[in-house]
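User: I'm putting together a teaching handout on how multi-component assemblies are represented. Below are the sequence lines for each component of a complex, exactly as they appear in our records. Could you produce the 3D structure of the whole assembly as structure tokens, so the students can see both representations side by side? Please keep the chain order the same as the input.
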Amino acid sequence: MTLDDLTQRLRDFAAARDWEPFHTPKNLTMALSGEVGELIALFQWLTPEESAAWRTDPAREFNVEDEIADVTLYLLRLADVLGIDLIAAANAKVDRNEKRFPPLPR
Amino acid sequence: MTLDDLTQRLRDFAAARDWEPFHTPKNLTMALSGEVGELIALFQWLTPEESAAWRTDPAREFNVEDEIADVTLYLLRLADVLGIDLIAAANAKVDRNEKRFPPLPR
Amino acid sequence: MTLDDLTQRLRDFAAARDWEPFHTPKNLTMALSGEVGELIALFQWLTPEESAAWRTDPAREFNVEDEIADVTLYLLRLADVLGIDLIAAANAKVDRNEKRFPPLPR
Amino acid sequence: MTLDDLTQRLRDFAAARDWEPFHTPKNLTMALSGEVGELIALFQWLTPEESAAWRTDPAREFNVEDEIADVTLYLLRLADVLGIDLIAAANAKVDRNEKRFPPLPR
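Assistant: Of course. Below is the structure of the complete assembly, with chains in the same order as your input.
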């Protein structure tokens, strides 16, 4: 399954439920924000070190995978509705970041 | 460029700047949240209809692509640090959603 | 009950549960962000017009009041931990906004 | 200046700029979320300990006060538009939390 396959699956999913009218860019940024809020809540009381050991708690493990999945789904759906190629846009941004933040001399 | 290539590029980018110690799951969820905040701000005063016509303003067009790229970069970096396969996790979530939200009868 | 009374109540609440070590500015901004995510989720699929008629659904009515309360509690707790007088800071910001956004001529 | 005075000031501010039509609950939750995103970004790379020492950097000090002010302003404006008494709602929530999280025995 590629990113494009998953995007198509989400498009079909929305169509089969008549959800397309709800999936405006405005609404989808809100949905994305809500899911990121659920993800951040899973780490809020952990120290940075504890957050790196997140797999030690099985319930947390499921929840983190579940919430990061939701974030991914809304991000893909938003990009599809916006007509943006996420990989190309992200790659172009790394190009700009390379110039903005030069690597350390070695 | 695939998702895996981009993930590797971000890994190299962080290593070349000694940023890895900052890239804990906790910190990266915060960075993700901050970027989603910048994205949502671009749509906050638009009607849903105006949000769908976002490409009519060239400055907004650049900013939306720039911010959604930042969201993507932090999401990929977070998934890499967590050791989560985003496509697999997202696909498994759609499987669960198929059961939770049955399609409309046609 | 004033804002200061409520702030004191939250201070006592945290102390009675030994939660103070968790209430760093970093953690509290995450908690605030998580609660705002829950609040935004209540409005994500509504049109702006429907969002203005939010009291027509009793379940939503309770949820909106509950979530905005959570946002308020974490904001007050964060301000207390930071040692910031919220009213003074907000008022100073409106002063700056008055200069940045002149009123319309009437 | 009380919370009610500040709320009234924001009401007048919006009216003097014809911003009221933009200030729907939906839009204001987005604006609130965007400002929380800017606040969280100020703490994302800090350790919890560094976040507690946030006043050691004068630029950060100004930015934190500025962003928490923005969060406060949008929260007050949202509560006003929703017709919610923030102090009463927050206080009622602490009542519920008292039952949900009993204090430690001493």
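A couple of points students might notice: The helical segments of chain B are 3-16, 25-41, 48-52, 58-82, 86-100. Chain B touches chain A through 63 residues (CB under 8 Å).
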